[in-house]
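Minutes, project check-in
Item: structure for the 444-residue chain
Input as provided by the requester:
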Amino acid sequence: MTDQWVALEPGADPDERVRALRRAHETFTTVGTVPRPVRPVVAESWRRSARAGVGPDGTASVELTDDDLGAYRAEHPLAQVMPLVRELVGTFAAEGSHLLAVCDAHGRLMWVEGHPTTLRQADRMNFVPGARWSEAAVGTNAPGTAVAVDRPVQVFAAEHFIRRVQPWTCAAAPIHDPHTGRVLGAVDITGGDGLAHPHSLGFVQAVARAAESQLSLVTPPRQAEDTVTLSVLGRDEAELRPGGGRRVRLSRRHSEVLVLLARHPEGMTGDELLCALYADESVTPVTLRAELARLRPLLPPGLLASRPYRLSVPVECDAALVERQLETGALTAAIRAYRGPLLPNSQAPAVVGLRRRLAGALRTALITRGDPDLLADWAHAPWGEHDLAVWRALAAVRPTAPVRARIAALEAELSVPGVPGRRPQVRQTPWVTSGATYSQRPPV
């Protein structure tokens, strides 16, 4: 084999290769070794699949249906290029009894289209919109492996990790955000053994590049002078980025002021701002006016207005972006945008409320959705590694030995066996994020 990314070299006998791959698959699933002729990319994928706890007799789970699926697709960036993808792939798929599929960056299928008979056959293995086809969920497969390794890849017949998928062959290529390089998902062609030809791999790669070119036209990068942004997630000192100007690092109190004013574009009176910022009722309006006087020279001219206190231009806060994404059902995008608790060491009453509501809404959505990849992302983040509720939700959908061990350790930390009524001790854990150190009280 001269190119490990191509399933069959020229002149290879497909039937003979299938037989050899089935023997190799049986060897791996029984004794854990990968014999030839398994390609390195497939061997590595099999090992990742096994480490994730995928069994060879498993099946994909459908996570999104009906309105939830429709809302998720409408919000996803790849919705903008689906007409182009259909134009390039649709006829080829329908006439060749193949399927066109597009997944997100977590391997969740968003669109599956093509020949009606092939669609009915695929339905029997849950190769349908809304189903999770990541490697961690169903093992080696072209769309899941393409987003896992960030490369175009073919998966031929018994190279699939799950046995019920082994009659199929597929080729997929990742699609990237043209401005950031982030993987947005993958385009896939699924069908018979004929797709093992090198041309199918080149074809899906060309479609992915065309989609990226289209995205660069329909989603031009935002110009710095068009907006003022405020970053407050995962950091105690907010960063303000005025349109076209230098970045401004703010003190904690000034950060709190801008968070609240960005939250209230209609403005806040001095009394409202005083109550929102200070739990101590003895703090006087003079103290607040002094803080605002020190803040005003740090901001672009005219940004902080008075009577009532307000921001003179819209300010895009990263916390507000996460809230909007969550409200539209775009949980994956919300989790990706969440960089940590909002001003985590702030004790300003209104900021504490915002921080708790945002984190609580995300946690509730995560646990309700039960997405193993998103739950794992949260659980392994600094703010989630002591979150017992999320770890338990992760164990319900991905009951691996490391997850169960982590739950046991957390339960041991949070309780003292044999001492009735003993309250769990909550540990303060320092984290360093974006240049700011903070302590996060782990939710239980």
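Outcome recorded: The first strand starts at residue 99 and ends at 104.
No further action items on this chain.
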